[in-house]
Description:
The protein is mainly beta. It is 6% helix and 53% strand. The strands form five sheets. The chain has an eight-stranded antiparallel barrel with strand order 1-2-5-9-8-7-11-13. Strands 18-17-20-21 form a four-stranded antiparallel β-sheet, with no helix packed on it. β17 and β18 (231-236) form a beta hairpin.
Amino acid sequence: xxxxxxxxxxxxxxxxxxxxxxxxxxxxxxxxxxxxxxxxxxxxxxxxxxxxxxxxxxxxxxxxxxxxxxxxxxxxxxxxxxxxxxxxxxxxxxxxxxxxxxxxxxxxxxxxxxxxxxxxxxxxxxxxxxxxxxxxxxxxxxxxxxxxxxxxxxxxxxxxxxxxxxxxxxxxxxxxxxxxxxxxxxxxxxxxxxxxxxxxxxxxxxxxxxxxxxxxxxxxxxxxxxxxxxxxxxxxxxxxxxxxxxxxxxxxxxxxxxxxxxxxxxxxxxxxxxxxxxx
Length: 279
């Protein structure tokens, strides 16, 4: 860690211990446009354009893209890719992105994404996130994106299955692969525990019910803030919610935050990506 980083870490830790700083549960957007070449199961080799969109954890508030080395960090990742199939794909189509986390050492993780249903024929959109991270040891950690493995299950407009298509897409040499940099700090914040195990238990074309597991920390839990696609939509005292008024055949990302009786909040839960049923 550099002297500047060490000083910033010490300052943040001191503020946390004295209660002068309340960390904000926010996320910093990241974007990356890259060219790939996809070798498909049909024998074709197809050049494609890929746009990656991400939300890097920004758990401290006083410093950009900063997390605690001792807490699990979540990185959202979306991609848009020029279409390799005709017709539409449904939620059983997936993408896996190989990811390198480069800090004091380099380690390999992966991001699992699910394609949004009902897309047109020009671009496909998928959403998901990296495997949960412990960004340790403290310091700067680069997030670099690698190969993309696609498993596409296209369908006709009437829902009839079309021939499947699998592909391995490799980045064009010389292109940028850096999604962003996360700064890991040597501090531990005392705050409510994140909700875990978000699960869809029921869905219709316009509604979805999600449950989760909530645990109290030093003080009792007052409720849960539910965020849909980045916006706070409701607060509930029960560890479940039924979302209404959703569009049929649409994809969404849900996160939940614990709020205790003192008004303190947890970091956001891991994002849950789900799709509503067709109308």
